[in-house]
Structures are given as structure tokens and as C-alpha cells.
Amino acid sequence: SQQTIIFTVRVTGDRYLDKFSVTLPSINDTIIKKVDVSPHSYTQMGKKSRQYISEYRYAVTVLAEKGNIQIPSVTVNAKRADVKDRYGRLLRYGQRFYPKSQPITLVVRPAKRVSAEPWLPLHGLQVSAKLLDEPPLKLGLPARYKVTIRANGALAQDIPSMLALVPESAFKMYVEQTKLEDKISSNGTTIE
């Protein structure tokens, strides 16, 4: 339970897509967040010709304790790019089409019991800190301190802040800019 998975909607064809949008159905016992702001497009060689691929990725966090979760068919609203000659003259308008995926069943197994509360299904957790100002520090003068948290298994916005662990009476803290960055693994299956 509460494991985040990457759900990729991919459309493959013989031409680039001019327009591409996804209608995700609501899925019980999940939280769905779009990972990509715009579709990720690339080409690769198929068996006989070049394939044009466009995809959106979503982080799906499963909230169910155990059991099966059904992801219904996903509908894509797509339009192939117009065909032009080498002088830029229009030869053929791109066609609009609406491919639909097959439903998918996720099997959710019960989580192993852990003693930490709250619990996040993270691995490879790293916390590092760095003083940005040169010593010596002087009483009453500000010092800049950078804390970096890296973890695999959750979106950056879902990882708790370290600020809550600093006692308020110990320091006056002024939080500057928080930079959140999500990266999908090279095989497209996990969040790094």
C-alpha cells in the first residue's frame, strides 16, 4: 500500500503527432499526478521503418491496503502531423484518431509492518547538508545552509521537509527557494 508506480500512456505511429491529450479515468483508491508537463516525443527504428513515439507519464500512488485495483481503458485524443512537401506546401491534413488502451489490473499486496510513523515507501534515501557561507560564523549574522534530500520511490513534493525537525527556539529560520525535481528511471518504471 502507498507505493508509487509510473503509469505511461504511449502512442506509436508512422508520423509525429501534432496534438496529443489523454483522458484518464478516475481510479478508486489511488492518487494520480502528471509527471510530464508536455508529452515526451522521440523516434526509434522499428522492424521496417522509423516509429514516432509520444508519451505522457503519471505517478499513481496506491492507497488501498490490499486487493485488486482496476485501471480502466485510457482514451487518447490524437492528431497526426500534416504532410507537407519539401517546399512546405500542404499535401494532406493530419488525421484525428482516438486510440484506447486495454484495462489493467494491479494486484496490491499488504505492506510490511514498519515501526516508523508516518511511513513512506522510499529506498535509497540520502540527506546531505552544506554550509554556503565561509566560516567563522558570527552571532547575529545570517548563515546560509543548504539541505538536499534524495530518495527513490516518491515524487519530490511528497517527501517531508526537514524544516519540521529543527527546534524553533534554536534558530530563526527563513526559508528561501525550495527546488523540487522528479526524474524517471531510464527504464521508465520508478521515480528517482
Give an overview in words.
The protein is an all-beta fold. The chain has strands at about 5-15, 15-25, 30-35, 40-45, 50-60, 65-70, 75-80, 85, 90, 95, 105-110, 125-130, 145-150. The strands form 5 sheets. Strands 1, 3, 4 and 5 form a 4-stranded antiparallel β-sheet that branches. A 3-stranded antiparallel β-sheet has the order 2-7-10, with no helix packed on it. The protein has a two-stranded antiparallel sheet with strand order 6-11. A hairpin with a 5-residue loop joins strand 8 and strand 9 (about 90).
Write the layout of secondary structure elements.
Layout: E1 4-13, E2 17-23, E3 30-34, E4 40-45, E5 50-62, E6 67-71, E7 75-80, E8 83-84, E9 90-92, E10 96-97, E11 104-108, E12 123-131, E13 145-152
Antiparallel strand pairs: 1-5, 2-7, 3-5, 4-5, 6-11, 7-10, 8-9, 12-13
Please report the number of helical segments. Answer: 0
State the assembly state of the protein chains.
Answer: single chain
The beta-strand count equals 13
**What sort of overall outline do the alpha carbons produce when their principal axes are compared?**
extended
**Percent of residues in helices:** under 10%
- Which percent band covers the strand fraction? 35-45%
Largest sheet: 4 strands, antiparallel
Instruction: Indicate the mean pLDDT.
Output: 80
- Class derived from helix and strand content: mainly beta
Alpha-carbon Rg, integer? 23 Å
Distance between the termini: 19 Å
Give the low-pLDDT segments.
none
